[in-house]
């Protein structure tokens, strides 16, 4: 009984266990936001390794450790360790981010699984926006804009196209126009709405009911007068919108205000730190809306910003979903931590 084994899952095995099942991810992420809203979690502020000020994350890169415990039926402890090197796709032909997740039994603390977290991380980020769109987009939203044709906007589209059922048209802009075209070709086989690559960020944003900014830009380009009444703006990356623009939003929601404020990097935090808006203008956290303790969208006119930092609890819960499916289906390899501990 003293032997400790854990399940190892490569990226291919994560996918075989349902890693790309966005319906499953959406359900898990929404449940996790509900538990967050009820306070059934433990999550310290995430430490980051950087080689300079926050803006260098988009040049040199960074690494974050994201530990969490999530309660309810999930009842799991874990950590995601995720480097982000923005030049990877261009210089090395590998993804910007490359994550590893460890799950631990919350009572003995022993590891139960180690797995690729790259797919899980992108899927849970997309699903968080899908849940945000469910509560914060207009019911009849039909046009979506995507700025950035990278990994994140793939999962943003997978999720949002499921939670905004009236969606008909998607406009995609990337500074790399070939990439935007390739994105449209690829994603057209996966989602219903018609996809179109456009020639500027303005075309991807102006007149849309919802738009996502998910780039590695170090400069703000979103212009407030492009944003129409009733629009939902989801800012996934950090520097695309200037803090001064935040005065135009009727409501600003985040996923974890304490961590965002502490990091002072996301546009919602910079707008508060720079005195553009008072802290009281932060309307709340998505978990509070899902748990029913705060209202989301209340009128069709409201311009709403959702500015998430990404929750470690969502990595742990989504990894738990994959772990449980993998165990049930016999996917993955069992590895020993030890046969018998040398010291007790
Ligand atoms: N908030 C969260 O929860 C969360 C989670 C994961 C990633 N992120 C952030 O999302 C961002 C995107 O990640 P990714 O994995 O999609 O990266 P990626 O490298 O796969 O894609 C980024 C894309 O942005 C494009 N781009 C750069 N500058 C642009 C500009 N000015 N206008 C239009 N396109 C531009 C690039 O050409 C590239 O195609 C990163 O900044 C990352 O840190 C946030």
Radius of gyration: 20 Å
- What is the top-level CATH class of the largest domain? Alpha Beta
How many distinct domains? Answer: 2
Strand segment count: 16
CATH architecture of the largest domain: 3-Layer(aba) Sandwich
Helix count? 11
Structural class based on helices, strands and sheet pairing? alpha/beta
Query: How much of the sequence is in beta strands?
Result: 15-25%
- Sequence of secondary-structure elements: EHHEEEEHEEHEHEHEHEEEHHEHEHE
CATH superfamily of the largest domain: NAD(P)-binding Rossmann-like Domain
Bound molecules: nicotinamide-adenine-dinucleotide
Output the CATH topology of the largest domain. Rossmann fold
**Residues in helix, %:** 25-40%
Q: How far apart are the termini?
A: 13 Å
Largest sheet: 8 strands, mixed
pLDDT averaged over residues: 97
Low-confidence stretches: none
Give the oligomeric state: single chain
Molecular shape: globular
Features:
single chain; 344 residues; alpha/beta; ornithine cyclodeaminase, domain 1; Rossmann fold; eight-stranded parallel sheet; 11 helices; 16 strands; 34% helix; globular; binds nicotinamide-adenine-dinucleotide
Question: Summary?
Answer:
The chain has helices at 11-19, 22-38, 88-92, 118-136, 151-163, 177-188, 201-205, 257-263, 267-273, 286-290, 312-329; strands at 4-9, 41-42, 48-50, 62-70, 76-84, 100-104, 111-116, 143-147, 169-173, 194-197, 210-213, 232-235, 251-254, 282-285, 304-306, 333-338.
């Amino acid at each position: 009984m003293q032997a400790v084994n854990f399940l190892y899952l490569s990226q291919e095995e994560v996918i075989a266990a349902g890693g790309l099942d966005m319906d499953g991810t959406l359900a898990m992420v929404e449940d996790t936001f509900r538990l967050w809203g009820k306070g059934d979690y433990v999550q310290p502020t995430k430490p980051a390794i950087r080689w300079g000020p926050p803006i260098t994350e988009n040049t040199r890169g960074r690494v974050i450790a994201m530990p969490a415990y999530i309660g309810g039926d999930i009842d799991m402890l874990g950590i995601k360790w995720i480097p982000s090197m923005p030049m990877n796709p261009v210089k090395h032909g590998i993804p910007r981010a490359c994550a590893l997740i460890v799950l631990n039994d919350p009572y003995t603390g022993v590891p139960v699984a180690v797995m690729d977290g790259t797919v899980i991380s992108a899927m849970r980020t997309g699903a968080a926006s899908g849940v945000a769109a469910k509560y914060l987009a207009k019911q009849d939203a039909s046009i979506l804009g995507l700025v950035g044709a990278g990994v994140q906007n793939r999962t943003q589209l997978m999720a949002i196209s499921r939670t905004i059922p009236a969606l008909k048209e998607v406009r995609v802009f990337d500074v790399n126009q070939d990439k935007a075209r390739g994105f449209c070709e690829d994603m057209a086989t996966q989602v219903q709405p018609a996809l179109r690559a456009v020639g500027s960020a303005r075309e991807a944003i102006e007149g849309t009911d919802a738009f996502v900014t998910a780039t590695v830009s170090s400069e703000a380009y979103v212009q407030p007068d492009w944003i129409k009444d009733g629009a939902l703006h989801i800012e996934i990356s950090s520097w695309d919108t200037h803090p001064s623009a935040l005065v135009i939003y009727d409501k600003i929601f985040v996923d974890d205000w304490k961590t965002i404020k502490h990091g002072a990097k996301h546009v919602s935090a910079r707008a508060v730190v720079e005195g553009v808006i008072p802290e009281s203008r932060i309307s709340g956290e998505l978990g509070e809306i899902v748990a029913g303790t705060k209202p989301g969208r209340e009128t069709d006119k409201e311009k709403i910003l959702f500015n998430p930092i990404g929750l470690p609890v969502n990595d742990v819960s989504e990894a738990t979903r994959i772990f449980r499916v993998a165990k049930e289906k016999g996917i993955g390899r069992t590895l020993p931590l030890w046969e018998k501990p040398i010291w007790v």
